Amino acid sequence: MKNDINYTKKQIEAMRFIRNNIINYGKAPSVRALMSALNYGSPRSAALIINELLEKGLLKKREDGSIRIIKNIEEQDNHARTIDIPMIGSISCGSLMLAEENIEGFVPVSSKLVDNQNKYFLLKARGDSMNKAGINDGDVVLVKQQPIANNGEIVVALIDDEATLKEFHLSKETIVLKPVSNNKEHKPIIVSQDFKIQGIVKAIIPEFNN
User: Fold this and answer.
1) Which CATH superfamily is domain 82-205 in?
2) What does the pLDDT read at residue 95?
3) Quick check: is 166 catalytic?
């Protein structure tokens, strides 16, 4: 699908860098980081291109002054069908961490990986408790939002408002969240009633490079 609005090469480069920064670091880049990436001579030039993207409705500014992506640029030579999936932040693959429902931006994902009947989100994996399952520190996981899982599926688990990424196992009335790691420090977690499944991992995107 082509855009009705024409974008300059610098605007496309800026959007790509902002998107990549969100995937890599969980937040949009600073003005100075954008200035350096685009080889601008001053922060003002980077600030001006951010304002252009804000005016075109691609970015939105939060109350604290930070920015997030609300719409992606699809380059005219890209004919692959994509769906914008929200990037929520990071999730622990080691110890538990506080779940953050703060969307940093939207990342285009091939429609071959997702469908319009379900909701999806992206998370950055942290730690090494799932490395034998192919999820390494820095990888991005595509998660299908759903409250149930089958044995052996990798889930985003919410325990007392803290989230973790583990392999799901149900035996009679016992639910165990197992690490899949060559690091023996990680131990299985036996969960109680407070346990909730936020979704299951459908795809792994290896550590994102700019």
Assistant:
1) Umud Fragment, subunit A (2.10.109.10)
2) 65
3) yes
